[in-house]
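tool=predict chain=A
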Amino acid sequence: MKRLTKALLLAGGLVATTAVLASPVATSSTHASPTKSIHIGWDRTSRSDNTVDQTWWAVRTHCPWDTVAQRLFCTAVTYVLPTGATGNYFESKVSDETGLPLPERWDLTTAKNSPFISSIHAETPLDPASVLAFYRAELEKRGWTENGDAVIEPDRAVIAFKASGRPALLRVTREGDMTVADLSLRKVAEAKGGLQPKPGQVKLMFGNKTDEEAIITINGQTIKLAAKAGADLTDSAEDAAKVPASQTIDLPPGKYKVILKVTSGAAQNREFEVAANETWGLLVGPDGAALPIHLY
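tool=predict ok
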């Protein structure tokens, strides 16, 4: 099985694609003001049966130059130019590959395209009503049909869809000053082994892409992750199956508070909603950011 990690670097208005075998791409050595930038990661795994497993993540952040944090966390490709064109390119690429729309003005997003699922997780400052209206309009253009049992509340919406006969789900929730949108389309293939959740439960799998130890606390359980532990769990079902039991937990469906801390950073608090029969990866990314990726 050949694994190819791709990173995209935008500079001077030109986009170049660099492919390396499982190697991080160092940040540019150009010194710049800590302007808002985009960190992007992209993994691709080709299988022997000609199927492909792809994962994307992107975080808009202020990259601190000439600091320890730069060396530790800014190892993904970093954009120090205005982010409009970069964001548009990323949105277009993810949408083309997954077939799922991505709203503008996101601060963090992840996406998955595998034989089991196509999914997008987006966190945006837009209000829930605007995000819901965007998705309804975009999914209608794609021929998706609502099942008619939508739950619509001021700060939360859950809508089941059918797309080419396959089940899909949109979940929109307000968390603090951000709106979180999770859109997923189940595919024909059935996950087995380490990727399969227990019936009626949610499986959470944890990984750490940083060079520091990370500690995650959720539902009264604490998971300690050594540097780079489980960093490849989102690459393929085979990699997910190799994640040790100490980095996996099963939970009832619901909304959970998550506390994430890397050695050199402050603790980050957030909420994380999951539904029955789902499997999620939670990666520790740049600046200790929590990257939720819907795997199944």
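The chain has two domains: 2-126+178-186, 193-294. The mean pLDDT is 79.
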